[in-house]
Records
---
Amino acid sequence: MIVNSPTRDGATPEPETIAKEKEFGFDIVKETKEFRNYENSSLQDTVSNSYKNSHTLQTYEYASKKMREYSKLNSGIKMGIWEAAELLNTIIDESDPDSDIPQINHLLQTAEAIRKVYPGPEYDWFHLTGFIHDLGKILLSDKFNEPQWSVVGDTFPLGCRFDESNIFFDFFKGNPDYSDSRYNTKNGVYQENCGLENVVMSWGHDEYFYQVCIGNNSTLPKQALYMIRFHSFYPWHRHDQYKNLTNQQDEEMLEWVRKFNKFDLYSKDPEPIDVEKIKPYYLSIIDKYFPKVLNW
Ligand SMILES: OC1[C@H](O)C(O)[C@H](O)[C@@H](O)[C@@H]1O
Ligand SMILES: [Fe+2]
Ligand SMILES: [Fe+2]
């Protein structure tokens, strides 16, 4: 699948970039056969259990409360980006049928895949986004001790009807919001096209790390912040649903979120990466877009 790849300012993609994406092997066959198998992968029981919990326990009220608490960034934990990435060394994401190796590998694999296709220094923010996009999973570490269902998995809007394009849709039937008349209409508590920034998404690593970026005054561009915040929102970026909630800015950013998704997904590889070798490069770009120490 060769998806159109606008450059940073939205101009037409360079033929060279398209060729590189091809060479890197993004293709639909691999996608349907090897990735995101939610039916009978070797990890099926663990994955399905993780979604059973998240789809029944994530409610509008729960996610709003988590958001209020965590966006204060007042856990008292202060650390740099690299230190946070190291916390992911031992963390496994139970919602993921494609990977059961420690998460730091996934971060570096994503980032390096982006760097292969977009090598230029003008894309250093994109490399960095690959490296940090799942950092919110430190909520699973013993510093925060959040359960898997409150951290990982595809995300979905709360406060309105659950769309059938969500994987494991049937599990939502056990969610109290499913039968709550305030929340089970098409628009629910929202105004038509209110914009995703006004929507309460299921609580997890995406929204949390977005809050960390904003609250610590990261200078990453808007595209990067969208990739971080909405990369798990598959019903939107893959299935074109929830258009009743998006506004013009969301639609403009959608291409970037999609572009990012290819790297997030197709770079997953059981072979771990040589961390020490590439560490200096990532330290330098972290320095450019983040303060040395962040509040978490
Ligand atoms: O963003 C993620 C993610 O980090 C997971 O590993 C996963 O299993 C998802 O479904 C997802 O959307
Ligand atoms: Fe993620
Ligand atoms: Fe990821």
---
Amino acid sequence: MKSKILIVDDESSICDVLSDILNDEGYEARAVSSGEEALEVFNSFRPDVILLDVWLGGIDGITTLQKIKEQDSLVGVIMMSGHGTIHTAVKATREGAYDFIEKPFAMDKVLIVINNYLEWRQTKQENQSLKETFTHRYRMIGKSSASRKLGELIDRAAPSNGRVLIEGENGTGKELIARNIHFASRRSTGPFIAVNCAAIPEELIESELFGHEKGAFTGAAQKRQGKFALASGGTLFLDEIADMSLATQAKVLRITEDQLVTPVGATSSFAVDVRIISASNKNLAELVQQGTFREDLYYRLNVIPVYVPPLRERSSDIPVLLQHFLKSFCADEGMPVKSFTQEAEEQLMLHHWPGNIRELKNLVERLVIMAPGDIIDVEDLPGEYRRVGEASGDIAGSHVIADSLRQAREAFERSFIEAKLDRCGGNVTKAAELMGIDRVHLHKKIKHYGLK
Ligand SMILES: Nc1ncnc2c1ncn2[C@@H]1O[C@H](COP(=O)(O)OP(=O)(O)OP(=O)(O)O)[C@@H](O)[C@H]1O
């Protein structure tokens, strides 16, 4: 679509010349001779750029500028001024004009200023839409106290340059957290480069991270930049770092010490400016104990530790996540927003979620496509998401067949504790936390019921 330009000048010769040239240059130009007329046609013509003379009969250029800006603060106004009015034109830039040109002007200069404005506006719009895409795509959803604490931690950690180590099960959102830290940091305009160390064969990881020289090894036909170099000025996200060999760990350790990278096969090194955020789904402290992860590297990377709890330990996040993904997938599919029945939602809150948020997201995508109606009920859930309900039926059933209230209460309590312990993988502290009781109290109950 052609960009529209409105020319406002009471000298008809200037209007004619400008209109002819701008139309020839591929713009849609229109000229008027007063501020009043400009305001009249502004809404119907909707110009992208206005070339506005400072000196006009009737309302002057500055007043016209102010009135136009009241209607549309984003339109690009370029003031035109004669020799005596240059001071006014400069003042106009403070009132929101994009730039000014002095009469008599060379047409080249006018075209350059118009072009500069249109490019500036396009970059601004692109940045805005990138920002919107980011906020939508990488928004972290969650209202549990664990999620709120994570949010606070990200806000505090982001502005610093401190290395961050994120630990948590698969699919808990470690990469999402890393991206949020990057985008809230001073490096946000720099690159965010992610490397999954587990996905790269051992023999290629060094070349992937540090780059290589041409002919450094069989198959290295071209010199190649590594991820450290690509991330310079930004953030390098090292995912699954536990999968790095001890040799690679030693090299990464050196870079964290001197920020110098030596590509494979190179004789010299170069400096990089990289903030490292690493992540692991294994307990790195344990791997240090076992001798498979370097202790010194562990401490270098773990300046700011972030632990992401599994979804089953923050089940109050489940309803909001379900809502969020339902809305987003239904919008992608161009269909009305579906909803879950209360029973279906309760079933999902009881699920163990071994794949965490990734699993939940995939399930919602599947249900949006496969569930026949707009309301998703328990029958629409795949079998494995209903099993917990059957188990809780057992819990309910066991107390119904008991005779006394005490027996019923004990039967229920026993099954309840057993289910919670099971959910927490036998971890008594976690189960006690989940049930909202003291750990010592839970130990007594376990002993009382002879649970393992
Ligand atoms: N709090 C959240 N709000 C919205 N979406 C989330 C949230 N946490 C995770 N996700 C989404 O869940 C999916 C898995 O997240 P992510 O890849 O960050 O997990 P991860 O812990 O890095 O996984 P892995 O250990 O397998 O690499 C992604 O699509 C991510 O956008």
